[in-house]
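User: Okay, second chain of the day. Same drill as before: sequence in, structure tokens out.
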Amino acid sequence: MLKRASEERIFDFDKKAVGCWMVVEDIGPVRPVRIFVTHEALSGIDPREVRDVDGSLSIFDKNRDRIEQAANTKFDDGKIEDWPHEGQPVIVLRDSDF
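Assistant: Same drill. Structure tokens below.
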């Protein structure tokens, strides 16, 4: 199970996704996991929002609980990407994850 590491989130222009950190719950030492939500997935969550960086961040903020639940589902199912971010595991949330 993952839990929120901080309120910080950023738009990653290379990945065209909003990224945030979560951590594995009840495990020590702290084990971070990078979460990326693609721009397309965010646009699918709220198609009325403007499709730009600010719009993506706004959708992310308004739907963070839903996004974190989807990240938990992928993590619990072992669906981790095969490439690390800053040496840490990565979960990418796409349209199909919502």
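The first strand starts at residue 2 and ends at 4.

User: Thanks, on to the next one.
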